[in-house]
Amino acid sequence: MNIIAYIIQKEFKQIFRNKAMLPIIFILPLLQLVILSNAATYEVKNIKFAYVDHDQTSTSRALIDKFNASTYFNVLTVFPSHEKASSAMLLGNVDVVLEIPNHFERNFIKEKTSDLGITINAIDGAAAGVESGYINQIIQSFNKNLKVTYRDASENVVKPVNIASIASFWYNTTLDYKTFMVPGILVLLVSMITLFLSGMNIVREKEIGTLEQMNVTPIRKSQFIIGKLFPFWVIGMGLLTIGLILAKLISDVPMLGSLLLLYGYTSIYILVILGMGLFISNFTDTQQQAMFIAWFFVVIFILMSGLFTPIESMPEWAQILTEFNPIKYYVEIIRMVMLKGSGFTDILPLALKTLAYAIVMNGLAVWSYKKTN
Amino acid sequence: MKRFIGFIKKEFYHIFRDTRSLFILFGMPIAQILLFGFAITNEINNVDIAILDHSKDATTQEIINKISASKYFTIDQLITRESDIEEAFQKGKIKAVLNFEKDFSKNLIKERQATLQIITDATDPNTANTITNYINSILKNYEQSKNKNIKLDYQVVSETRMVYNPELKSVFTFVPGVMTIILMLVSAMMTSISITREKELGTMEILLVSPITPFQVIIGKVVPYIFLSVINAAVIVLLSIFVFNMPVQGSLFLLGAESVLFIITSLALGILISTISETQQTAMMISLMGLMLPVILLSGFIFPISSMPEPLQIISHIIPAKWFIIIIKGIMLKGVDLSFLWKESLILISMTVLFIGLSIKKYKIRLE
């Protein structure tokens, strides 16, 4: 037992001695948590809107006013011709162009219907879809107004059926992205720090040559590994704690579930990551190699974790692959516990998988660590 | 000059000798772009929903059939009580519940109006919003089919044209982003590591006392990585064209030139990182922890920059990746030429110059 304590002491000294590393371990991630979580929003706002009005009548102006009044669209620019508007779109100065044709009002009165051209920059397909939705809403409400103004009062029409739908958004009524993103990004930062540090740690001793010295000591394999990994486990839990406090104080993220449950789960989860780091360490000779591999997996884990894009949207094979992604489990659980107040039985299936993962990963890591060449 | 070439040769040997790193270096981008190109999408598909039907009549059944027939939704569960909704959401699988009011059919015929509640698990606001929109459009369709015989008049019919990406494929936004991340991180990380490695192992001293100038040392370090990154960029572009059917509307030559420019910018950033860090560990943590998330989040790769709060929009200007993503999308999807992209290119060039200038100022040729 004493031996483990000494190793842990040594490791902590080594970590805290490197003054350049401290801010990277603690300040950088937390700064990113606070600042970057604001960037992660799919909301489509400030749409750069332009129009070409060939008609120049009161009806066309009424339509433009509708767009003007909407909060989604801003920077209303007018272009004299279609060509001018197109080149502005090429430059990226305009996202949406509304083109009102000649005789817009006249067609309307004569034929009771009129056409309208809308061009949307669809490079970001998702945003374009949302923009098109906003535009349709505006046009529909414009249509409603028109019917009121133009329809003959005497005209007897059958009332169309109408299915009214009421949307209610549970757990996040204001659709605030920060609530959704902060827990996820916190998971990411905890995982990245613990994986990179543990992945680099043993291989560093290998590269510098001090690992041989450790190997000739009577320290047993298990003692060495526990002593090596424990400090990172502490750092991971520490980061989680500070992160949760910041999430509460600065971003006002709710904490509906049990903190104990979250900590209990995290303590298992970090073991998975540490086992992974150790495993990588064992199979590499230089820190460079270790980091490449860690980086490769981290990028895949991040982008396939359901953190930024939903897992349900992925093709079947990719969803199966995400079963091997520890970050996916943690992201899902932290959101369930913090935002929905899910309890022990709700997260049990995911937690059991994580536990199995931890056992397998650490088993592999210990097995592959050899004291002798 | 001969000495310098010898030095570059040494660097190439270093890289090619380490077959494992080399394998990762080339295998990684290919694996990532294939994986992400197929898997990452923010469209919704096969979302599990539950139904709470208080009327159980022909109309609600018809609507439920319509919804389950669409590829967006799978009806996973029928629930009978309001109190079960909470439980379904907490298990995490169900993302939305459709709650039909009592006497839905009757109301629709008699009052010409019936009400339906769409309850979504809005912990993920984007998915919740999209689900609501999709269900609404299915309802609208159904409504229209019921109203077929009633003539609707006085309306504006809009014709929407989606330009540059008519099918709204999300691959078109993600592939340029993934390409940028890979090039940026690989280039910055590799140079910073290879320079600090010499420092840490003590071989930097040997290089400094050799007749090669410090400037040549840096250039010699960077040249092999330019070479490797260009190959990587080419592979990624080929994959995006042949596997993901990305168009290249503009000039392939310009795309190549801009990629080289961006690679040099990233390498310059790597050099700068190496001058401020003493150990490989520090260099790696700066380039991984410091660059990864800002590049993913602030470059416009996943989240639209124009929706971010003002201060973050300003910060995003200093992320080189942002400008490169604009350039790639411009060339590949819009087909614009340099006259449209000179500003972005100029920004990348100035960043490169700045990084190199700072590195030269910070670079110590003396031992401490």
Account of the protein in words:
The complex is a heterodimer of chains A (373) and B (368). Chain A is α/β, with parallel strands linked by helices and 373 residues long. Chain A has 14 helices and five strands. A four-stranded mixed β-sheet of chain A has the order 2-1-3-4, sandwiched between helices. In chain A, helix 3 links the parallel strand 1 and strand 2. In chain A, helix 7 packs antiparallel against helix 13 and helix 10 runs parallel beside helix 14. The longest helix of chain A is centred in the middle third of the chain and has 32 residues. Helices cover 66% and strands 10% of the residues of chain B. Chain B is elongated and about 95 Å long. Chain B has a four-stranded mixed β-sheet, with helices on both faces. Chain B folds into two domains: 117 residues, abc type-2 transporter like fold (3-Layer(aba) Sandwich); 192 residues, no CATH class. Chain B is an alpha/beta fold and 368 residues long. Classes of the chains: A alpha/beta (373), B alpha/beta (368). At the A-B interface, helix 2, helix 4, strand 4, helix 6 and strand 5 of A face helix 2, helix 4, strand 4, helix 6 and strand 5 of B.
> How is the largest sheet of chain B built, in terms of strand order?
2-1-3-4
Spatial separation of the terminal alpha carbons of chain A: 26 Å
Structural class estimated from helices and strands of chain B? alpha/beta
Radius of gyration of chain A: 29 Å
Please provide the ordered H/E string of secondary-structure elements of chain A: HHEHEHEHEHEHHHHHHHH
The proportion of residues forming helix of chain A, as a percent range, comes to 55-70%
Number of E-state strands of chain A: 5
Series of H and E elements of chain B: HHEHEHEHEHEHHHHHHHHH
Count of alpha/pi helices of chain B:
15
Q: In total, how many domains does the architecture of chain B comprise?
A: 2
Percent of residues in helices of chain B comes to 55-70%
Oligomer kind? heterodimer
